[in-house]
Design brief:
Transmembrane segments: 214-239
Structural class: alpha+beta
Strand order of the largest sheet: 5-10-7-6
Signal peptide: 1-28
Distance between the termini: 201 Å
Keywords: Membrane, Signal, Transmembrane, Transmembrane helix
Helix content: 25-40%
Largest sheet: 4 strands, mixed
Radius of gyration: 52 Å
Number of helices: 3
Pfam family, one: TSP1_ADAMTS
Length: 258
């Protein structure tokens, strides 16, 4: 018959072997503690957090090797709680979590569990480890399209254009994304509408600046006609006078011969 001291030593040895097995399993990240613990007082020890509870470890602790836990007792799934390591792969993981200016993910892209966002502490329920990646710098800029054709009356014509707010991501492989206008600075927004002068009005103004009014053209034409007429009349008068002077001289010559 075993003495009480021997029994206590046996229990201690079994406990030590159990903890050794637990810490060996813990190197994988998450493990099932096969001990039956009180649901409200049980735990996983320093550096580990309880994730799930199940009497049969969700089928991994089945009988006859492991007996069922009594009422209000269960087995705990424990995961190692670590600080995230710097990585460059979180941007590829769909299940990454946004934590401030950084992404937190598991190295195998499984869904991470974050226990402290400020220190980026948490765990992965797989054999992966927790990682984080600084988010690429985001820049919001206004972009304006071409102006539409100027339409309207000469002094009331206007034209418009579309102005959108775009998100540019540093080192991104994709094109800028259209986002809400409130993301861009309202004070730097380009105008969407402005006054303008239609081409027809510009042509009319050009003619006014470089051409003469009709009344001026008529006046100049009449002046030219009058001038030409005056010159012709003056020439005719001179011609008549010369003709008259020539005839009188001929008469004088004829009289002298007599």
């Amino acid at each position: 018959m075993a003495t009480p001291r021997a029994s206590q030593a046996m229990v201690t040895l079994i406990s030590l072997l159990g903890f050794a097995a637990l810490f060996q399993q813990a190197s994988a990240g998450c493990f099932w503690d096969t001990r039956c613990q009180n649901l409200w007082m049980g735990g996983c020890g320093d550096g580990f957090v309880p994730v799930e509870t199940s009497s049969d470890c969700q089928g991994l602790c089945s009988s006859p090797q492991y007996g069922a836990c009594p009422l209000f007792f269960s087995r705990f799934q424990c995961c190692r709680e670590d600080k995230a390591r710097l990585s460059k792969t979180c941007s590829r993981c769909p299940s990454r979590k946004d934590v401030g200016n950084e992404w937190v993910c598991c190295s195998d892209c499984s869904e991470p569990a974050i226990t402290d966002g400020k220190s980026k502490t948490g765990y992965c329920q797989t054999d992966a480890y927790l990682t984080f990646q600084p988010k690429p710098r985001e820049v919001f800029k206004w972009t304006a399209r071409e102006w539409t054709t100027c339409t309207g009356r000469c002094k009331k014509a206007s034209r418009s254009r579309e102005v959108r707010c775009l998100l540019y991501v540093e080192n991104a492989l994709y094109s800028p994304t259209v986002v809400a206008d409130d993301k861009c600075s309202a004070s730097n927004k380009p105008p969407t509408k402005e006054r303008c002068t239609p081409q027809s009005c510009m042509d009319a103004n050009h003619q006014k600046r470089h051409g003469l009014p009709i009344w001026a053209i008529v006046l100049i034409s009449l002046t030219c006609v009058a001038a030409v007429g005056g010159l012709a009349f003056a020439g005719f008068i001179i011609y008549r006078r010369r003709s008259d002077n020539g005839n009188h001289g001929f008469v004088y010559v004829m009289l002298d011969s007599y």
